[in-house]
Amino acid sequence: MCLSAIATAEDPYLFFEWNVTYGTIAPLGIPKQGILINGQFPGPKINCTSNNNIVINVFNHLDEPFLLTWAGIQQRKNSWQDGTPGTMCPILPGNNYTYRFQVKDQIGSYIYFPTTGLHRSAGGMGMLQVHSRDLIPVPFDNPADEYAVLVGDWYNKGHKTLKSILDSGRSIGRPDGIQINGQSNKVGDTSAKPLFTMEAGKTYRYRVCNVGMRLSVNFRIQGHTMKLVEMEGSHTVQNVYDSLDLHVGQCLSVLVTADQAPKDYYFVVSSRFHKKVLSSVAIIRYTNSNGLASLEIPPPPPENSVGIAWSINQFRSFRWNLTASAARPNPQGSYHYGKINITRTIKIINSRYLVDGKLRFGINGVSHEDKETPLKLAEYYGMADKVFTYDLVKDEPTNDNKVVLAPSVANATFRNYVEIIFENHEKTIQTWHLDGYSFFAVAIEPGRWSPEKRKNYNLLDAVSRHTIQVYPNSWAAVMTTLDNAGMWNLRSDMRERAYLGQQLYFSVLSPALSLRDEYNIPPTQELCGIVQGLPKTPLYS
């Protein structure tokens, strides 16, 4: 529920009140305990404009602690609101917490979801779309309408069952199917109701996000092409595609023109790089539709090594639209990121481990564990040494297969320009996400990375974004300026992997201890663990 919007001398405020409850949902036709926001799955859509201030009062009516993160919203100077267990105390059952943050200098399509337990497998997620301000020209005409499309794999087991499986040391295994906006339909099902409608001759914007737990997907629209216009907050060069791969945690926008015969058409989603292909369809109906959708659906892209090469080539076709006016994700406003000297290279290898017979995942020999006291709070109160040790995780992976289970926090120098290399030696695709920043996704290639591979980087118009996929036995490279002070989570977007340790935090502190660089702890911030009951003394001035 959006309570009101208030315009003052400041940027406008939007106020929301959300009630988080359990409710029965059945995206694949099998009922399970879902997590609803204001009775909805997917949750309410946040529709806002660049620089708006968002105020959301979240009431937790579950029987477990709950937290929401706003993936891709950079929370400038404000990791206090980032919604990860390393930055915030969870909202306890029967309590509420009010998030306050600004979508500063950002546009685009984002998702929010729970970071506690395996709640993401039960819902509690939705879309956050940030429009350009009226004075800023957008590089395409206003669409007739916009549609939020949340797709992804789905498990029929409940979130508590899935969590107990992981806690026992086993994998949650393969998902049961694919959902589209909380529904799943089969080709030829005449009882399916349309999810979207289009009027002949008009153009529509579809914002599509992969909110799944594990699987990459490909989506396509029967009989229609799609013009890519935005990806994770950046306007893109407007290439036209028959189908698009979308990896876990990723969002993009396409324009679709209703230029076909007036009838029904299928929006098709199918899994990628998975032994058993899972798929689902939704119906797009023309307003004067006079026919059912054809039973012949567009085929998926190839699989196996051919499919990986196809997907890498598609990634390489994504380019930043340098002529578009928009809020700039790059704080320096520089188009010349390729000419900035790299001050630090961090090479990350994801690994699977067995520790005392239990499954764990990690980064460079460290498998992250959350503690009762959020890392950011421990650091702010000068009690970090009682909760974690800095730099257990190194910039280079170790050659042995040993693993340390502990909170994983890497020190980072404020305003350093860093290169992060993700190398995947496993047989499954990976997706990574970095909170607090966007980065330039400059390369993905098969094989192993070496410094001479830098000559293959796109140093001109790589898309500025916050996720990157890494194919099996491949590597990816990204670059960013660490100019947002705070405690920021770098994690696998596969929830099983993140829950079992494939994540770390960057501690980015401004030596000036200035409000110019970071906000003080909010007076309403919940305290827990060893800092519970301490005064919220301002550190920065």
How is this structure best described in words?
The protein has 4 helices and 34 strands. The protein is mainly beta. Strands 10, 11, 13, 15, 16, 17 and 19 form a 7-stranded mixed sheet that branches. A 6-stranded mixed sheet has the order 23-22-27-32-29-30. Strands 1, 2, 3, 5 and 7 form a 5-stranded mixed sheet that branches. A hairpin with a 2-residue loop joins strand 22 and strand 23. The chain starts with a strand and ends in a 32-residue tail after the last strand. 48% of the residues are buried. The model is unreliable at 329-333 (pLDDT under 50). Keywords: Glycoprotein, Oxidoreductase. Its EC number is 1.10.3.3. InterPro entries: Cu-oxidase-like_N, Cu-oxidase_2nd, Cu-oxidase_C, Cu-oxidase_fam, Cupredoxin, CuRO_2_AO-like. Belongs to the multicopper oxidase family.
At a glance:
This protein has 541 residues and is mostly beta strands. Helix content is 6%, strand content 38%. Strands 10, 11, 13, 15, 16, 17 and 19 form a 7-stranded mixed β-sheet that branches. It has a 6-stranded mixed β-sheet with strand order 23-22-27-32-29-30.
Kindly identify the CATH topology of the largest domain.
Immunoglobulin-like
Low-confidence stretches: 329-333
Tally of discrete structural domains:
3
Fraction in beta strands: 35-45%
Which structural class best describes the helix and strand composition? Answer: mainly beta
Rg over CA atoms:
22 Å
Mean pLDDT: 95
Q: What is the CATH superfamily of the largest domain?
A: Cupredoxins -  blue copper proteins
Count of DSSP helices? 4
The name of the CATH architecture of the largest domain is Sandwich
- Helix content estimate: under 10%
Domain Plastocyanin-like: 19-133, 146-288, 373-510
Organism: Handroanthus impetiginosus
Protein name: Multicopper oxidase
EC number: 1.10.3.3
